[in-house]
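Section 3.1 - Work completed
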Amino acid sequence: MIHVGMLLTFVSGAILSTYLCQYFLGKAIWFSLIPLIILFIQLLHADLIEEKGYLEMTPKGH
């Protein structure tokens, strides 16, 4: 189900990008920065605050 969710997210992003290109032409690419900035902030927050104590831990299965 996780992979299906990832595929649906990709397809919905492609459909939304196609729709935005009709109206914003070349500037539609800038709309892709919105989810990327949100993801960057979430990863930075997890790295600096939430998972700071896990730095010395060795991952299992690697």
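Second construct:
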Amino acid sequence: MVHEFLAGGAGGGNDPIFALNAEAQRRRAAGESILNATLGTLLRDDGSLFVLPSVVRAMNEVPAEVAAAYAPIAGDEPFTRAVRSDLLRASPWIDSSLAVATPGGSGALHLALTTFLERGQAAVVPEFHWGPYATMASHADRRLSTFRMFAADGRFDLESYERGLAACIAEQGRALAILNFPCNNPTGYSLDRDEWRDVASITAEAGRRAPVSLMIDYAYARFAADDREDWLEDVRNELEDALLLVAWSGSKSFLQYGARIGALVAVHRDDEFLRKAHDALSFACRGTWSNCNRRGLLAIAGILGDPAARDRVRGERAEAVATLMERVAAFRTASHGSQLRYPRYEGGFFVSVFSQEAQAVASRLRELGVFVVPMAGAVRVALCSTPVGEVPRLVDALVDTVE
């Protein structure tokens, strides 16, 4: 029997988001009018994939014989240097940082889970988080420990975050927190400056009691309404006694999902720690995926290292952000006056509508030809793939089913 060859911990079945997307595509191909708000890919209003021409050109300009060669295990040095510069800008912390290449932001998350937690230990995440976090943790023999994301006033629940860190420290002597901001997947929520400062202060206090790492999943940050870097200054100023990690996603930022371009960036004041961490992360890269996509690494390094190319890409990305914000505005307008409840939403690929019957809501929506992703306590709506003209239909369907 085939199953006899599988290890006991092997999972099964398709990812639920991709399964919903496949059903939506089948029904559309059969002639139904389908509104598919499942996948986190940015589409133009005509349904075509949004790509950045300058990025495509840079990918095509990498010589074939260079692209075909192995990349260094931790990534080409121009790429890792460019990523650190892109993230940290002119900050003095750039000299207190390292970066290793990963296959997308997912690879960075995997490295964080397996390098900064022991087997059986748990990462601290908010209750509303990207579903594959749990898949990655389970596959690596780690776990997730969730805390309540929103307080009664609708803001980030700092007290619950603090309790979550304390509980993990008490249980396992260390903590790794994973926060996906700005533009949280699945809610679209972004921390404001006060919330960033408070998160950093709480993390720093925990870091004085035990080894604590704060991982920022930065996947959607370049699609925020306001591409500001204030958060980094607020966080780094506080984190003298904790490790700052960032999952940097070129796959998202440059709209090249299939190229799998990413990096794990670590910031710490101790040079010796950074050297040891780089060795450990490189070892993990070799033992997991070996090398990353060299064409993608070199193309993105070239863009980030050339001010003119970088500006062209920013201009092209600005069009994508404007498209998203038009849909955000349409969603707010269409839902105004309804009883739909959703978090503060200022940009990004997704918004979540709260419901304690999310599975039933998603099922009723599918009957109407509207596909969203159900979660515990909410349904995730991918405005990134919803044409602006379809937003009223989407909201009407949500109002009819959620209320």
